[in-house]
Protein: Polysaccharide lyase 14 domain-containing protein
Organism: Kineococcus xinjiangensis
Amino acid sequence: MATWLAVGERITAWRNAPTVLWSTSFSPEPDSTWQEEAGVVVASRTNAEVVADGPEGRDDVLEVTFGEDGSRWGMDYRHSFEAMGLEPREEVWFSYDVYLDEDFEFIGDGKLGGLAGMGESVEPLEVSSGGEYDERSFSVRAMWRENRGVVMYLYARHGDGKDFDDEDNYGYGIFEEFTKADGSTDDVLRPGTWQRIEHRVKLNTPGRNDGVYEMWIDGHKGVSVTDVQYRTAEHPDLEVNAVLSSWFFGGGKDQFPTRVNTAWTDDWALTDGYLGIRD
C-alpha cells in the first residue's frame, strides 16, 4: 500500500498545494517494503537501500551507491502507476529531492529519475531509452553533465525542434539544457545540499507536436519545451503510466566513476499540479 501521507502531511509547508496523487518518504509499513510502496514492478540494478540516518538530519532516505565493483550503475527500477494505485495520466508532475555527496564525480552524462509511458505490449525494461526508441513508448529524465549542469533527456518522436532520428541527435535522445535565472547552464547541481527536481509531462494530441515538458530545480523552471510528440498518430492511447528510476554514470564507454560515489533521494511525489519547494 502506498504511503500517501509521507509527503502529504507536510504539504501545507510547501509553497503550492496541488493534489498529491501518490508519494513516499521511504518509511514503509512494517509488513511492506519501499519497493512495494513505490510501485516497483521490475529492477535490473539494485545498489539502493533505505538508511535510517540521511544527510542533514533526514530520517529514512534512499541511499544510492555508484561505482561498487567498478560498476557505473546506481539503481534501475521501473515503477508502475497501476502498482501505485493510480490510473494512467494525460498530464502529471513528478518531483523528488536529491543530495549528492560533497565530492561527487561528474563524469560524462549521468542519468537521474523521470517519467515514462508504455503501451501494453511493451515490457518495462524495453521502454524507449538506452539509445533505442520505440513509438509504443516514451521516456524523459534529468541528466547531469560534467559542468554540473542538467539537461532534459527525452526519448520521443519529436521535441525542441528536433526529430528523434535527426542526425545531430546521434540516436541517443533529444537534449535541452537547464538554464538558471542568470542565464548560465553550469553548476545547476550543488553537491553537499538537498535539491528538488520536478518534472512536468503534458501529452500531445496524437500525431501532433504540441506536448509539453518542463523541469524545475529548487523552484526555478529551467527547461520548457512545448513541441513534444510523445505519442504518434499510430499510438493514440499512449499515456503517462510509469516512473523511471534509472540512475547511473554515462552511457559512453569512458564514463565510469573512479571510486564509490553516493547519492540520497527522498520525498517522491506525483501530483496534478506544480508542487514547488518548501517555504
